[in-house]
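Ticket #666: bound-state structure for adenosine-5'-diphosphate.
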Amino acid sequence: MFKKILIANRGEIACRVIKTARSLGIATVAVHSEADANARHVRMADEAVLIGPAAARQSYLVGERIIEAARATGAQAIHPGYGFLSENEAFAEACARAGLVFIGPPASAIRAMGLKSAAKALMEEAGVPLTPGYHGANQDADFLAGQADVIGYPVLIKASAGGGGKGMRRVDAPADFRAALESCKREARNAFGDDDVLLEKYILEPRHIEIQVFGDTHGNCVYLFERDCSVQRRHQKVIEEAPAPGMTPERRASMGRAAVEAARAVGYVGAGTVEFIATQEGGFYFMEMNTRLQVEHPVTEMITGLDLVEWQLRVASGEPLPLRQEQLDINGHAMEARIYAEDPDRGFLPSTGRLVHLSPPTESDHVRVDTGVEQGDEITPYYDPMIAKLIVWGTDRHQALARMRQALAQYRVVGVSSNVDFLARLVAVPSFANARLDTGLIEREHDRLFPPPGEVPTDVWLLATLGELLREARRAEQQAAQSPDPDSPWRAVDGWRLNGRSGRQLVLRLGEQAQTVDIQFEAGAHRLSVGPVQVLARGTLGLDSELLAQLGERRLRAAVVASGERRHVFFAGRSWPLVLVDTLHVGGAGDDHDGGMRAPMPGKVIALSVAPGATVEKGDPLLVLEAMKMEHTISAPRKGVVKGFHFAPGDQVSDGAELVDFEGGA
Ligand code: ADP
Ligand code: ADP
Ligand code: MG
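RESOLUTION: The complex was predicted; output attached.
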């Protein structure tokens, strides 16, 4: 076995490889870009070597620098992880030339599977079932259009060099074929530097089922069962699970045998995955082979009880596979969800920034979190915005799903947008819960997955307010502790008494919903009013932002995380990024003229707090104005009726502009 290995990757996979190496007593060397100087994989490794600037092309993709780093540190082998150089045959060869072990298949196997068209031709010879289509060399547009007619629509045009869901076009009718072919070729040329395409019959309502295979240098090859990766977004996996729901032992055995055939046909060594497209009826066709460890390999580990990285290391150091096919077994059910820094409401746009607050669910025998970041770390624009992989195990799918729901409900991410709430909705949709899986699930369930915002529950306003009051109290205590003056006003722990008031208000907002919460201090508690609801509230706020609240007779567990003006409330498996509005009651108490109805400064209308026609009490918020990067609430100067607004949310208003058509009561 190796004494020291280098990991040519970053993020969660680098951390995950280091963990296994360490458990086997193997020393680890991390490589990193300038942007990753203090990244988690660097902090975890025994040694770390800077290999270049942030851009992957100048660091993680520069094979020579990585090989140099391995030589300089005396590493014997290089683990490439996934992505980056993991499927680069030239890099695998360069490692060998430098006397280093590439922890992966032989360069020849990478080459054989590197182009989808060549791989399909090879699989055809090996007798592996293929999706009907054309994967030959002729790239003439007329010829390909003719082939598409033969295959029958819909067809899928695929970049032969493609990967990561890029370079694919579904075409439904002959009239659209040429335009799709052109745009697919353009994308392929830009992304992969190779515009060869192949054509496939587009399988309707397909499932993505893949087989994990493992070969060694002694001629053994086994399959470690399947993973169902049908839940996808734009051909990219979102949730993976093992075993595949509805799989029969016969079908598993025949897919397993086909996958082992595929691996043997290219002299495969190490961990690999053979991806199949499967029909609802049970047919399956070879799609491609990924000649590396797969992102979703943990679900296989959870159901087999094996460590696939350990197997990789053993095989790469020349040991035979630890187990034979008949010694392998499936135990229970596992699911993985990919936690990304992205905004589902804005087309899943990646989100960058500092992870102000990051609190994953507690790990246990059946909950695992693979991550490359910790609270305080940065999601940078340079790399994949994955925050973590959340993996759960249960004795059956039902239990695994319940644990996934619970774990997602506990996951808290503040500082970047994340897909956690989206995933929570996804695992709750009936078709997913009932395992009616196919690659169109997310699109089909769009309405359930993107519900209209809905009203913020009263509990959420109350919890945010209580959290804020407890935070103020803690800050006041800290300041009192630091102040040498025993008579300092900061010693008054209930902060608002500083203002000589016994009651106050807090204004919170989410989108267009604004809410004023009235607060009265009462013997060690606060009486909070939200509209007609009044409760006596008390509680504790942990340093981890955990809020234990007593609202009247009810005890609630939540978290309230402050980040700038935001107060993120995590409650009942959801989150609400409320904004704490700085209240500016223009035209103060007792002021009876309509001065408050004018914009106090130039700004933008953010939200209307009441509907036209509403009767309001004095002090009720009417609208929220954003000016000078702050938010200001314009409140009713007295009881009256809001007849209308002169502006809509988003409108720019000038200083002194009249905002509301208000009719004061008697
Ligand atoms: P990549 O290299 O980008 O992973 P794949 O060939 O593995 O490309 O395909 C990615 C995804 O595209 C699959 O998981 C599946 O959802 C979809 N797909 C691929 N081939 C077909 C097909 N013939 N019919 C329908 N969907 C397909
Ligand atoms: P898998 O097929 O293993 O489930 P995907 O196809 O979703 O994984 O993503 C793997 C591919 O995505 C890699 O081959 C790589 O192109 C890209 N990728 C994913 N994560 C990273 C990363 N952290 N760094 C670089 N590339 C990545
Ligand atoms: Mg694929």
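RESOLUTION NOTES: The pocket of adenosine-5'-diphosphate (ligand 1) is lined by residues 131, 156, 158, 162-165, 168, 200, 202-203, 206, 208, 232, 235, 275, 277, 287-288, 439 (CB under 6 Å).
TICKET STATUS: resolved
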